[in-house]
Amino acid sequence: MSELGNGNLLIIGGAEDKWGQSSVLKNAIEMCGGAESKIIVITTATQKPEEVGKEYRAVFTRLGVKDIDVLNIDSRDDANNDSVALRISGASGIFFTGGDQLRITSILGGTKTFRVLRDMYKKEIPIIGTSAGASAMSSTMIVDGNSNSAARKCTLGMSPGLGFLEHVIIDQHFEQRGRLGRLLVGVAQNPSILGIGIDEDTAIKVHSNVSFEVVGTNCVTVIDGTTIQESNVSELNPEEIIALSNVTIHVLPSGYRFDLSKRTVKLTRK
Predict the structure, then answer these.
(1) Is 60 exceeded by the pLDDT of residue 1?
(2) 269 falls in which pLDDT band (50, 70, 90)?
(3) What does 85-153 look like in DSSP terms, one character per residue?
């Protein structure tokens, strides 16, 4: 499905439980190798790297991880620094925090750091992102758009992402911020791309770019536009409400798996 080959991704919808049961973050730690893993937290997305980095260091320490490296790559010079790329290459898992996904792509894109991350992905070293870090995982990412609004043309801004997960667009804080309308617009504009909306404290664990399973306390919404029969999105003026018929929507809680190739749902829990 992808030239990138196999890989492990954990894509979190934001606001994951940090101080309670922390089921999503426990999944992240398990993917990285458990308590003995080395996790690098990359704070590029946030404007408060020290505060955010300190919090995640405390959270992962509480959950038993012994080796946590917080790395703020704040410029393209940083991202092209050999020592930075070397630090990243020694990790058993990479964790991207929330903030602004455009900071991630504009600072890391095409740099030595990005090339190292791409190589790590090919070697199946887990790459994890929450909130903005989640949006950046796909080839095309949402960077702007109205929440709690009807599906209107031209209310969605998109940009190239990191490209670890292809043929999808990711939206996060999905139900909590009322983002169904804007994800429908994204799918209507290109029905071959799956729209995946991930709720807070919920994640998709992606296996080899072929399927994902849902973990966490809320839901994942999958919008499949290949079944659309009627759409007026190309005919509308800006801000007009789109019309769609026969769009397929799946709502999946923890324990469900989705086949990205066949676009089918399977219950995995007993």
Answers:
(1) no
(2) low
(3) HHHHHT-SEEEE-SS-HHHHHHHHTTSHHHHHHHHHHHTT--EEEETHHHHTTBSEEEEEE-SSS--BT
